[in-house]
Design goal:
The protein is mainly alpha-helical. The protein has one domain. Helix content is 50%, strand content 8%. The protein contains three helices and three strands; from the N terminus they run ααβββα. The longest helix has 19 residues.
Length: 98
């Protein structure tokens, strides 16, 4: 899905690009959802499913062992960044494809 082709340019934490890649993989096997509502539900669901696989360090940070090869702060994902930046960006990009 082309909405993942261009990285946001700025991330919250070092694990965020890795999570972006995981979401991209999830959406490669889906046919394009028929409408924005369906896409938004699917994106929110897949994001929550991925986040469950990590270890919650606080209300805003989740750690993933498999992302941790990127240095001392590698593996950490910012829930705040995803909530405020990442997910809204993907939803906006998708709405422009309709």
């Amino acid at each position: 899905m082309e909405i993942f082709d261009i990285d946001p340019g700025q991330w919250g934490l070092r694990g965020d690009p890795e999570l972006w890649g995981e979401l991209r993989k999830k959406f490669e096997k889906y046919e394009n959802p028929k409408n924005e509502i369906e896409f938004n539900k699917k994106l929110d669901f897949e994001f929550k499913e991925l986040i469950k696989k990590g270890e919650r360090m606080s209300g805003y940070v989740v750690w993933f062992e498999k992302f941790s090869q990127l240095g001392i702060s590698g593996g950490f994902v910012s829930i705040e960044w995803w909530t405020n930046e990442g997910l809204p960006l993907l939803k906006k990009r998708y709405s422009k494809t309709l």
